[in-house]
Automatic annotation (TrEMBL):
Residues 89-303 form the ABC transmembrane type-1 domain. Keywords: Cell membrane, Membrane, Transmembrane, Transmembrane helix, Transport. It comes from Alkalihalobacillus trypoxylicola. Coiled coil: none annotated. This is ABC transporter permease. The chain crosses the membrane at residues 24-46, 84-114, 126-146, 174-200, 221-245, 282-302. PROSITE patterns: ABC_TM1 (PS50928). One of its GO terms (biological process) is transmembrane transport. Pfam families: BPD_transp_1. InterPro entries: ABC_transporter_permease (IPR051393), MetI-like (IPR000515), MetI-like_sf (IPR035906). GO terms for cellular component: plasma membrane.
Amino acid sequence: MSDVIKNNQTSHSIKSKKKWKEKLTPILFIGPHLIFFIIFLAYPTFYGFVISFNNWNFFTDMEFVGLQNYANILWNTDSLYFDYFWSAFQATLTFVVLSVPFLIIVPLFLAIGIHARPFGHNFFRALFYAPSLLSVVTVVLIWIWLLDTNAGIVNYYLGMVGLDNIPWLTRVPWVWVSLVLMTIWWTIGTNMILILAGLGDIPDQLYEAAKIDGANKFKQFIHVTLPGLKGPLAFVLVMTTLASFNVMAQPQLATGGGPGYDTRVLILYIYEVGFTGGNPRAGLAAALSVVLGMILLCISLIQFKLMTKEK
């Protein structure tokens, strides 16, 4: 009888250990990511939100000012920061409107062309994806070398055919053309790969059925390809829009935010407020970041809702 009891206790102990291990295993996998998430995302986000209600320049104690930083940004028209914020927001919105359509349409048609597997399709896939492996500094330096008004290779060849130099990096609207061109060249490869993956998930039977029904290539694209890519395109659109709203390095390195303040985008303005000058204003910069984060959150939710809406 005692042996049976001992066996039952041993069996219960083994089962308890197994259950304990089963509960611990997911925590061990999640744990490292959770620690990094708390340290490098959750805590900085919370702390930045706290800073946004204070006047602080990194060197003195925080002074609580309530909603004053937000007022100076959003509704206090007498504040200089109000004008600068909306000017930077307009510049950011201009970049988004000019770049995002190209960053969706160009990769889409490149992906469709490569998905058809023409001769050398692997080479072209690698060719279009290669620029995305470069750092943004490298990309901007390449394009500055190409587009410099006086020493750029593009203006050199324009001069050879009798055309005047174009101020690619110093005059509107050419500065926007330059920023959009370098961004497209740099990032279309990533979007192309994502769309290619989506194209691979569309069953060939759908195209065969469309051909039997007499659909030409254009109708197949409208009624088979685009509906099949609804999920991937929604993801690409949201991520591309977020990335475009967070643009900074291209205007900072290529144009310095100029001419004037025409290309001083929001992230660049936040950096200047928070980290440059003799009196950096970390509280105001944090408030600007919170406002930008709320804008991005709203835009992302609206885009994703519209793109995934059932017909």
